[in-house]
Design goal:
The chain is α/β, with parallel strands linked by helices. The protein is 40% helix and 17% strand. The protein contains 12 helices and 13 strands. The strands form 4 sheets. Strands 2-1-3-4-5 form a 5-stranded mixed sheet, sandwiched between helices. A 3-stranded mixed sheet has the order 8-10-9, with helices on one face. A 3-stranded antiparallel sheet has the order 11-12-13. Helix 3 links the parallel strand 3 and strand 4. Helix 3 packs across helix 4. About 1% of the residues have low confidence.
Length: 404
């Protein structure tokens, strides 16, 4: 038979704070003579729920041993509204009532359930506040030149550093990879060179697979040469980004050609770095690899070559989403014979057919059959997750409100 749980917590000794024994005594009155189990955490803060007896109580709730929890005050459970809301959701799922002995908070009553909904509202507020604090902190740290995580660019490795008394990281040259980067920029800086030309030259030199085991392809080459972390922060770069309407965080005098730069997406920009307007440029502590004249020449070519694409898929909704597992090139749709009344669509590997860099030819993949299989898999997965429609969710919320 399920029992009552009395939970008590005390963080540190203070003369004006109530003891665990006194908390339990006050909670015993709310038990009304019924059997109860005692859970107590002495010397633990209420900033989170990582406490041994609290976790033991949660496990007993999940095991069906407990049907009511009594505490002296709400803050004995947690001082975090978010943690408290998550706990109340757990209680609802396991049909456990919650009672605060001194605040007359009892979820068995309509007022208690109303209080629960208020807690959920405040929990949502706290979630959004935390999210905004994270965004603000990220923006502040990035503008100071701190390493903000993410994939280490090819040509660099990460090493520890301290900036303004704060421990962070910075890039340092990986000599062999840095030599590859210099070669790529050198090849593409030739006015007549294309990304395909660079790719073929790398293959001829046996460098079509980089030192991290990844195939070079035109998309990867383009992404690499758009990154200002590969060059130096000098007056030429300052004027270039000023021309592109980028947000330059540092003043012109800090563009002294000694260190490099980071590029961070602005608040109202997407993650793509084709259009540099609105992107944030920050002085970074690491050394560049290529000179600014070469970098700017390559970057201008990429800007000139870029064509704005619509988001509509071509011939298949899977276009741009599936790639060869061997070479990393995208699979595209081709037609067997357009003159036929119903030409057959199938996927081909551009790494094998167009760029001649893939060593494994894929078997014939009929587009119709492959698309049907993907749709079927997505449908099965969605159904297994028990995802409810917006209408069903709104109905459930309305039912809860009506029960109050």
């Amino acid at each position: 038979m399920a029992k009552i749980a009395i939970y008590a917590r005390k963080s540190v000794f203070r003369e004006d704070s109530i003891s665990i024994e006194s908390q339990i005594e006050l909670c015993e009155y709310e038990a009304r003579g019924e059997d109860y189990l005692i859970y107590k955490d002495n010397g633990f803060s209420g900033k989170n729920t990582d406490r041994p007896d609290f976790q033991r109580m949660i496990n007993d709730i999940k095991a069906g041993i407990i049907n009511k929890v009594i505490v002296y005050k709400l803050d004995r459970v947690s001082r975090s509204v978010l943690d408290f809301s998550e706990m109340m959701e757990l209680f609802q799922n396991y049909h456990v009532y919650f009672v605060s002995a001194t605040e007359h908070f009892d979820t068995a009553s309509p007022m208690g359930r109303a209080m629960l909904n208020i807690c959920i509202v405040f929990a949502q507020l706290e979630r959004e506040t935390i999210q905004q604090r994270v965004i603000d902190a990220y923006a502040s740290r990035s503008k100071k030149g701190f390493y903000m995580g993410g994939k280490i660019p090819y040509g660099y490795k990460k090493v520890p550093i301290t900036i303004d008394g704060v421990k962070t990281s910075m890039y340092e040259h990986e000599p062999d990879e840095a030599a590859d980067i210099k070669l790529i920029y050198q090849l593409y800086s030739n006015p007549s060179a294309t990304l395909g030309d660079v790719l073929r030259e790398l293959k001829d030199r046996g460098l079509n697979i980089n030192r991290r085991g990844r195939y070079w392809n035109t998309a990867r080459l383009s992404e690499t040469m758009r990154n200002p972390a590969y060059t130096f922060a000098d007056v030429n770069m300052y004027h270039f980004f000023k021309e592109q309407k980028s947000n330059i965080v540092n003043p012109p005098e800090e563009f002294n050609g000694v260190t490099s730069m980071y590029l961070f997406s602005g608040e109202n920009t997407n993650r793509k770095t084709w259009d540099l307007s609105g992107q944030n440029i920050v002085i970074a502590p690491h050394q560049g690899i290529v000179d600014t004249d070469t970098w700017i020449a390559c970057r201008r070519k990429l800007l000139a070559n870029h064509q704005v694409r619509t988001c509509k898929p071509k011939n298949s909704f899977l276009s741009g989403k599936i790639k060869c597992g061997n070479c990393g090139y995208g699979l595209v749709v081709r037609f067997s014979d357009r003159k036929r009344k119903n030409p057959v669509r199938y996927f081909i590997d551009t790494g094998w057919t167009d760029n001649k860099c893939c060593t494994h030819k894929l078997p014939t993949i009929h587009a119709d059959e492959f698309e049907e299989m993907i749709v079927s898999k997505i449908t099965d997965k969605t159904n297994s997750l028990g995802i409810k429609s917006k209408k069903e969710q709104n109905t459930e919320i309305q039912d809860k409100i009506n029960k109050l």
